[in-house]
Write a structure and sequence with these properties.
Aminopeptidase; eight-stranded mixed sheet
Length: 170
């Protein structure tokens, strides 16, 4: 079984729990958070509850998943790796509350997630799917070593697939 809690210098990463639903609902109702989706309509409370349930189910099924991310004692978002059903490699994803943007949390989170994916899970490859207009997320991925591999169609919209392979030492 993998670690269910991890820490970085400023972040606490923990398994999501049912009581996170209020935060998830508020987070995915934010227009600036959903602006890069093919349908930029904010989630309904029911959709947010299903999103959280999927994250919790992934943990139960695989022993890892997207963590709830805390900073300064409060929840600021979610992020981690999940099993990709469509592409080769673990899928990195994260969503941070807009109030926490621009503080380096995304880069700190992604670096910790990559350490976990490659060191603990022994992943061969991690991918990140980013809409072309989402420059901030693209910059985070590139800063963390990802390279643009190709454009794919995801949920009916062009999406950039970034990839990072495990560094094998011989």
């Amino acid at each position: 079984m993998t670690e269910r809690v991890r820490r970085t210098q400023r972040l606490l990463l923990r398994m999501p729990v049912e009581t996170d639903v209020e935060f998830v609902t508020a987070l995915f109702s934010r227009q600036e958070l959903v602006a890069h989706r093919p349908d930029p309509t904010p989630d309904t409370p029911e959709e947010s509850a299903r999103r959280l349930a999927r994250d919790m189910d992934h943990w139960r099924s695989h022993g890892f998943g997207r963590w709830a991310v805390e900073a300064g004692g409060g929840l600021i978002g979610f992020g981690g790796v999940t099993v990709s059903k469509e592409f080769e490699g673990l899928n990195l994803s994260y969503h941070l509350h807009p109030d926490s943007w621009g503080k380096g949390y995304a880069t700190e989170l992604v670096r910790q997630v990559l350490d976990f994916a490659f060191d603990d899970l022994r992943a061969e490859r991690v991918i990140g799917l980013v809409r072309p207009v989402n420059v901030a997320s693209r910059n985070v991925l590139e800063k963390c070593g990802f390279t643009l591999e190709r454009e794919v169609m995801l949920h009916g919209a062009p999406t950039n697939l970034f990839a990072l392979a495990a560094q094998r030492q011989g």
